[in-house]
Amino acid sequence: MKLPVDIDAVKGFMDPDEGQALYESACSVAALGPCLEIGSYCGKSTVYLGAACQEGQNSLFAIDPVSYTHLTLPTSDLV
Fold first, then answer.
1. Are residues 22 and 50 in contact, defined by beta-carbon separation less than 8 angstroms?
2. Which of 23, 28, 56, 74 has the least CB density, counted as fewest CB within 10 Å?
3. Apex CA 48: angle with CA 65 and CA 58, to 5°?
4. In angstroms, rounded to a whole number, what is the distance separating the alpha carbons of residues 71 and 1?
5. How far apart are CA 17 and CA 5, in angstroms?
6. What is the Cα–Cα distance from 22 to 44, expressed in whole angstroms?
7. Model pLDDT for residues 5-55, shown as the tens digit of each residue
8. Strand intervals (E) in the chain
9. How far apart are CA 48 and CA 53, in angstroms?
10. pTM for this one?
11. Three-state DSSP class for 20?
């Protein structure tokens, strides 16, 4: 698995083993069509899913319908 960024630099709570499992699962379906992630928070899972979709030559749409304005993170830190 080749990720486009240093995953440790991305904010989030995903364990690397979970990320690997998510990537492998997404790889098994990414060639079938575009993928959708609902609830991407700061983007750690999005990196894994995006890498899988890129490998499958497809697209990833990531949305997060939750407002994180209550967090103390600067807006520039949200992906």
1. no
2. 74
3. 85
4. 32
5. 17
6. 11
7. 999 999 888 999 999 999 999 999 999 999 999 998 889 999 999 999 999
8. 35-38, 60-63
9. 9
10. 0.82
11. helix
